[in-house]
Specification:
The structure is a single chain. By secondary structure, the protein is mostly helical. Among the domains are: 101 residues, no CATH class; 108 residues. Helix content is 82%, strand content 0%. It is built from twelve helices and no strands.
């Protein structure tokens, strides 16, 4: 057998071996992605599915539940992913309703308002010019499409503010519980169960993280939502500190004390900034509301005297 034939055979055998190894690796990667997807579905505890059973109650409630059950099948379609985009899902997450029912309600609201408002506007028009019809349809669709998102933006902003206000109390509680000898799991469990009324937002997020940790995720994976959902650097720092303590151990009372002092100092600076802005805004209010009264009190007598003197001259 010639050397050229041997070279060709070796190349063919090498290609076959590479193909076999690549197919095995691709199969393992596909199985890993599939198992990861199934695991995420199982351990996403805040993901509550809409019941497929026939709803009970009044006729109107049954109709609404049936409509939502039908709309739930459209959320994961290409149309649903356009109407409930990733940005909208982040907003729903910040509002605490990023489950199947919340996404379905958001999707159904956009569909109903986006179609219903133009029809309502056209039914109320008396002018049938094409420009007015197109303008009314466009404005109705725009309001129906963007209205739910605007409401979610307001709600998300309020929850971010509340979470930032709850953060100093959470830091102090963790420092206190760590100081009496509790582990990080016990401390988080106490915060979730005993202080849910004082920390309604952060305790719920910690409960979700703890449930995900118990169901198989690592501490870092379970706290990823907690550290990123509200776009707060201090919450991200607390999550990193919890991860480091869980991984390496050690005393955290002093770092938590320093972190608490820094957060409170930052809150004081933010409050001073708000007071400075409020002082500037109040200047305009004082000019509009108090300046006329001040002129009347200080110069009113002089104006009356001048008017009386001028009236006597005229007579």
């Amino acid at each position: 057998m010639s050397p050229q034939v041997l070279n060709v055979l070796s190349i063919v055998l090498f290609a076959i071996a590479a193909l076999l190894v690549g197919s095995v690796l691709l199969r393992q990667a596909w199985q890993f992605m599939r198992s990861e997807k199934i695991l995420n579905r199982r351990i996403d505890t805040h993901e509550s599915q809409i019941e497929e059973a026939k709803p009970e109650g009044p006729f109107l409630r049954r109709c609404i539940e049936g409509f939502l059950s039908y709309m739930a099948h459209w959320v994961d379609t290409p149309l649903g992913k356009q109407l409930v985009a990733e940005e909208d899902r982040v907003l729903l997450d910040q509002c605490g309703i990023n489950d199947t029912r919340g996404k379905t309600l958001f999707f159904a609201t956009r569909v109903v308002l986006g179609v219903g408002l133009p029809i309502l506007a056209w039914s109320m028009l008396s002018d049938e010019s094409p420009f007015i019809i197109l303008f009314a349809g466009f404005m109705g669709f725009a309001l129906g499409y963007m209205g739910p998102k605007w409401l979610m933006l307001v709600k998300a902003k309020e929850r971010r503010r509340q979470a930032a206000e709850e953060l100093p109390l959470l830091i102090d509680l963790l420092r206190l519980l760590q100081g009496v000898g509790l582990s990080i799991d016990q401390s988080l469990n106490v915060v979730e169960n005993e202080f849910s009324s004082s920390l309604p937002i952060l305790s719920k997020e910690l409960q979700i993280a703890a449930q995900q940790y118990l169901n198989g995720r690592t501490r870092e994976q379970s706290l990823r939502r907690f550290s990123t959902i509200f776009n707060n650097e201090d919450m991200s720092a607390i999550a990193r500190l919890i991860i480091q303590v869980d991984r390496y151990g050690g005393a955290v009372q002093q770092p938590l004390q320093q972190f608490s002092d820094r957060v409170r100092e930052q809150r004081k600076l933010d409050m001073k900034e708000k007071i400075g802005k409020l002082t500037v805004k109040m200047t305009g209010v004082m000019v509009v509301a108090l300046l006329p009264a001040l002129l009347i009190i200080t110069g009113g007598a002089g104006f009356l005297a001048i008017i009386r003197a001028l009236s006597k001259i005229g007579t």
